[in-house]
């Protein structure tokens, strides 16, 4: 299952709720304001690191660019819209709002 997170972790607890339910191997994709969670060196970096031990983590590149985020937590992969579509085609999607 692909888990998409679109809310800033600084405003909502969507990310924290999501990681309680992901199964090992489930990819996480951060989009819109959700990409703030994967910015290197913030208070969510330790949680991202733990998730990366068992799950792939992606962030939508255009959303990173729009927010000026250039440094990602180690292991997080930036994807373009084609990569986003490929993930959606590969997995059932659970959107966390």
What's the helix and strand layout?
Elements: E1 2-5, H1 14-19, E2 28-30, H2 45-52, E3 57-60, H3 61-66, E4 77-79, H4 81-90, E5 93-96
Parallel strand pairs: 1-2, 1-5, 2-3, 3-4
What do you see in this structure?
With 97 residues, this protein is of the alpha/beta class. It has one domain (2-96): DsrEFH-like (Hypothetical Protein Ychn, Chain: A, 3-Layer(aba) Sandwich). 31% of the residues lie in helices and 19% in strands. The protein has a 5-stranded parallel sheet.
Features:
Hypothetical Protein Ychn, Chain: A; globular; 5-stranded parallel sheet; alpha/beta; 4 helices; 97 residues; 19% strand
Mean pLDDT: 97
**SSE succession:** EHEHEHEHE
Number of domains: 1
Number of strands: 5
Q: Any idea what the shape is?
A: globular
The percent range for helix content is 25-40%
Q: Ends: how far apart?
A: 16 Å
CATH-scheme architecture: 3-Layer(aba) Sandwich
Strand content of the residues, in percent?
Answer: 15-25%
Q: For the report, how would you describe the main beta sheet?
A: 5 strands, parallel
